[in-house]
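Good morning C.,

I know you're traveling, so I'll keep this short. The sequence:
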Amino acid sequence: QVQLVESGGGLVQAGGSLTLSCAASGTIFGISRMAWYRQPPGKQRELVATTFSDGSLDYEDSVRGRFTISRDNARNTVSLQMNSLEPEDTAVYYCTATIAPYSDFRYHDYWGQGTQVTVSS
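The tokens, ready to paste straight into the viewer:
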């Protein structure tokens, strides 16, 4: 049974740093895309960064150069290192991944429960 659990959220001052992590648990056959989304208060959920199975990365323009997404395939984790945080980065951050569990071998999208990041001015 596959689950995603995020951790690392919290309150930081503008200019500070925070690292989020997301661990996929369960017996996993394979993982393709892993990504971070965020949902600011009162706004739509938006894609922040993505890692693809070929190792390529994609970033939303507003975080490029400040955030770094990385994955550890051996441990089925994905992290988001956030530097130079701004108040506009305040949001609930969600981890998502496309995963085939061992019991199924078919790929499905999974989502974590979200972790709050608050950046004060």
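Safe travels,
E.
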